[in-house]
Amino acid sequence: MRTPAPNAHHSIKAVSRRTGLSPHVIRIWEKRYGAVEPRRTSTNRRLYSDEEIERLNSLRLATAAGHSIGNIATLPLRQLKSLVAKAQGDSSTTPASKHGISAAQMFHDFCLTAVKKLDGRLFEEVLQKAVIALGNQGLLRQVAAPLAQTIGELWRTGVVTAAHEHFLSSGLKVFLGHLSGQFPVSANAPCIIIATPAGQLHELGAVLVNAAAAQVGWHTTYLGASLPAAEIAGAAVQNHALAVALSVVYPEDDPNLPQEFINLRRFLPAETKILVGGRAAPAYFETLMQIGAALNESLDEFCNQLDLLRRSSKARLA
After folding, report:
1. Total-model pTM
2. CB neighbour class for 167 (10 Å; exposed up to 12, middle 13-18, buried from 19)
3. What pLDDT band is residue 139 in, cutting at 50, 70 and 90?
């Protein structure tokens, strides 16, 4: 057992920002695997040292390279750095920057090339290198989300086809699902249902939302695209879901969608929150406000809403 460092002064939020790991993952790695042992204040707040931040960052990079957290959590920092150095050496064919272009932009561009070629092997290789370089949160927010927006714009202008969008959706679903599976969710974590409503055939936004919710410690039940309100509500009731998240991308003038939102609110328990996002979501603003749904314009806003829901739920149960 490691002795907590006397100079520890970083909060868990600060550590999360510096490592790219969610606070939930940091706590799980501490409690379940003994990866770090932060100092505790008199009010039981965790405080981390610089060395512990370095250790967590090394663990993030090593797990992204394919190592199991259970096998490496207690390894000496020096050995962890060796694993990371080997992984980064293996991915050195992708430069971190070129001519002032950020690493995230380069990974975005490489992914776009792979999607246009419908090259699954290349796509997975680039995603693997991106998660090693940027972390799970960086991959999701700096590469995957902008890439989804780019493909959507190219599809609307006819540069790529629906096949390319489906290729991206299925590839991200598999890759992000594998990443989320590396971070066990506690048994008492809240549940969220994720889908697109009836008539919404584009599920890429829902795939990203599912990964974002899983990475911040929620049980996610992903239902896929174009489901009627009654079926979404049935899944929420069966799973005692705290929230339902819907992605609305296209079209912006579906005459049937407002009634689907209204039906969903009517079928759901009053305490179940509805969260709606996606490019076309603002077009249904009046209906969403009518049913008390939360309109989220980004993954960051969505995750903040999940944090608020989680805290309010705990407060009600206290």
Report:
1. 0.70
2. buried
3. very high
